[in-house]
Amino acid sequence: MNAEQAAASAMPTETVDDERPDLSNANVREDLALAGRCALVHLPTGRTCLLQLRHQGPCEFHGPQEAQDVVSGGD
Description:
Elements: H1 3-10, H2 16-19, H3 30-34, E1 41-42, E2 47-49, E3 61-62, H4 64-71
Antiparallel strand pairs: 1-2, 2-3
């Protein structure tokens, strides 16, 4: 590796993953997370929190059809 490659690899790059490191978790629905929602999935029921990211208080879980409506813009 030369000096240019080392400098380039040392530079931080901001990605969506930097903003939402929880996207790699199975209990976060990526499409809703990218839409700015909490997107936490209650694994036993499959229901998803549709509140805004970093909301106050407990999650409010909704069914799959409501989550799909949010993703498709029918909020």
